[in-house]
Amino acid sequence: MNWLRRWNARSLASQFFIAGGLISIAAMFVVGFFVSHLIEETVIHNSGAATALYVDSVIAPLLPDMQTESLLDEASAQALDETLGQGALGKRLVSFKLWRSDGTILYSNEKELVGRKFAVSDKLQRAFAGSLVARYEIASDPESDTERALGKPLMEIYNPVLQPWSGQAVAVLEFYETAEGLGDSLARARLRSWGAVAALTATFFLVLSVLVFRGSRTIEAQRKDLKERVTELSALLAENRGLQRRLQRASQRAAALNETYLRSIGADLHDGPAQHIAYASLRLDSDVLINASTQPETREKELAWIRSSLAEAMTEIRNICRGLVLPHIEKSSITEIVTRVVEAHQHKTETPVETVIDEDGPELPPAVKICIYRFVQEALNNAYRHGGGVQQAVRAVSHKGHVRVEVSDHGDGFDPTEVRPTSLGLVGLRERVDSLGGSFDIKTGEGGTTVTMIFEPMEVGE
Length: 462
Prior knowledge:
Radius of gyration: 59 Å
Number of helices: 14
Strand order of the largest sheet: 2-1-5-4-3
Helix content: 55-70%
Distance between the termini: 50 Å
Strand content: 15-25%
Order of helices and strands: HHHHEEHEHEEHHHHHEHEEHEEH
Largest sheet: 5 strands, antiparallel
């Protein structure tokens, strides 16, 4: 079955060229043989008919009434001898015989054959049936020893002698003609017929080959295009499955981070504002405020402590809310978003931040804008808390849907392996960027830390 697999692996054009070529060659030989044989028979028959007509015109007047005569008389035999032994007819004819229907030779230029009876051959039967029989071959009949001894093809003609009023064949003239030049004519006829058949077959095959090769190229191009599309779809399906798994993991991590955020907010409220409010509540129940005998100065001092605790609690609540609530950035550009975060950080920490913004891209989805805001905000906070706010810089580029935001500092850096999975800062940034299909990268060392986030055009469009 290996040959079948190799055959099926070939292109349609190659299969057609091989199979069609073999079939065309076989058809050419069959048709060529048939046509050349037909032309050969036609040439021999026409040549024999011409000779028979000539011989018949010369010999027929010398013959007696073959319907009544059973043997050829002396006068007729002498007349035939004289006619066949001289002139153009004598030069063309090698031998001559006059047959009766029972196979008896009534006359022959070979006198020893006269009166002898032979089996009636198929050629003789056809001639007595009224048909002219012509053959160009080496003599093979029993009565043709002399002709066969010549060792070369001769024109053998059986011409029926017809009764004028009834058209019935009463005798048959058999003669052999040298037929000089007939062999060359037959060879030329064969060559021309084979050439014509070969040319026609080759033209037909070439025209079909051109059409098949054009169709095969079209099919191969479509097959290649289809294969590329299937490959692309397979890659997209694989990528889609990867994104689904990635989204599931991100959702799970986001749920865990949300719980961590809630615990962190609860801890901030418990350790900060709740303590101040609890302190103020205890002071409200103190004896200083309850006893009417308390001096006004002491009472006013206690109230000042209570107001101070409540003010600190309100300040911390506002700071917590400020970190949770975003400004309206849905219609803001990247320049406005980054500038707003940087200015708020500079005002809060009183540290400078170098800002470089290059924006000429299309409008971004709100989710990406929020991600940029939180990314710059958290990265700057980390740069201030862990890097001391040394040479802080923000670089943002948005070009034809490609977004790249980079926050760097020249602090002491840190060991990324020491970042705990429950850490809200860097882990939260990574999860936020991953959930939107972007890429997140951290490079840190003794020369400082650089945090980078990138969104490609397709991912942003999603």
